[in-house]
Amino acid sequence: MSWYDEVEYIRKQAKMNNEFFASSLPMIASENVLSPLCREMLLTDFHGRYAEGTPGHRYYEGCKFFDNVEEKAIELAKKLFNCSYADVRPTAGTTANIGILKALIKPGESAVVLDLANGAHISFGKWGGAGVRGINLISYPFNDEIMNIDVDAAVKLIKKVKPKLALNGRSVFLFPSPIKELAEAVHDLGIYLVYDAAHVLGLIGGKQFQDPLKEGADVMSGSTHKTLPGPQGGMIVSDHKGNTDEDKSFLRKLGFGIFPGVTSSYHLHHVAAKAIAFAEHLEFGAAYAKQTIKNAQRLAQSLHEEGCKVFGENLGFTKSHQILVEIGPGKGKEASKKLEDSGIVTNMNTIPGDTDPLNPSGLRLGTPELTRIGMKEIDMDSIAEFFKRALLKNDNTKKIKADIKEFRKDFQELHYCFKDGFRGYDYHKLV
Questions:
Q1: Strand pairing partners for 237?
Q2: Are 112 and 163 in contact (CB under 8 A)?
Q3: Cis peptide before 55 (omega within 30 of 0)
Q4: What predicted TM-score, i.e. pTM, was given to this entire model?
Q5: Does domain 39-277 have CATH number 3.40.640.10?
Q6: Which tens digits make up the pLDDT trace of 359-407?
Q7: CATH topology of domain 26-33+285-429
Q8: Which residues have a Cβ under 8 Å from the Cβ of 25 and sit 6 or more positions away?
Q9: Degrees (nearest 5) of the Cα angle 21, 201, 176?
Q10: How far apart are alpha carbons 86 and 88 in whole angstroms?
Q11: Where are the domains of the chain?
């Protein structure tokens, strides 16, 4: 192939990807789509520039305009999360987590954490960032019936093992964590509590979920591209104000953990897009988060009524954007592939009791992107019917896919973002 053919091949794949998602039901809980103004920032000259350090204290010249952008991003982040400290430099949620771990815990020291089978994120597991840092991980006791940490048993464990950190990070995040109770226990022992809000950052910013910093978390990390629909990236925030020497040391460690700890230059175009996403979420976040949760709860109820086994039934299935469905022993992968063939994009997921993450027994579903394109509760009933046809009735996948493509025709406009000057913009046809 010539260089032109190689380039055209890549462009063709991008176009086909856009077309695929424009005619499917995107339900991966960790995905979302950018607003036009956020996308504009990714095409600016900020891309490819360097700005190591902090505003006004750079290792490179030519940063005066970006300094203004980063300062504005920090200002907006503090306002969005009602806190006193924000760092928008992490290039991913996992990068933010590793930076926090580098700052606050040494190799060989212990941390309490959720087990992966109970919904933890891999960055807080032995195969992820915590393992890279060489941390001794001790699992929280977990209550399968409420899909949450067993508070009383966890407090007893913390008092017994006296870990260096208490970590609260989840990839399956159906219900708020018992942060207040855990914070009281760990703070009595002089331990820091870390809350990974990667999945629920937009729900927190929209004031529709728990407020971890106000409940006692010392630092909160997050991804800026899930329920907070910005560019791929990460951030950390804290309500420590640096009023004491201990506080100053804590914040200084966090800053050094991110730079030079785990970042060099930090994708300046993404920082600019983060700033716009924060501004949009300050305006639209409450409405978006509220509808996202309503959609998840309605979809869970509808799936339950169609005959699916949905976790959390006794508690209303979910208080977030996520739903966890049990498919059968080791059948999660098979089910997710069949759904994809039908035009429904999900991911296989471990459920309590699973031991093999490559052959799990469940599916994780999310409503952030469905909500972003304008779907409401009534539409969740239609989606539950598509699930029933694919997984319970074994209908022809090509027929289901064609019906979903027709269904999606009414949902091509992006909602909950600034649109002035972009009316009629089709975000699926950028390429």
A1: 86, 220
A2: yes
A3: no
A4: 0.95
A5: yes
A6: 999 999 999 999 999 999 999 999 999 999 999 999 999 999 999 999 9
A7: Aspartate Aminotransferase, domain 1 (3.90.1150)
A8: 343, 344, 345, 370, 383, 386, 404, 408
A9: 110
A10: 6
A11: 26-33+285-429, 39-277
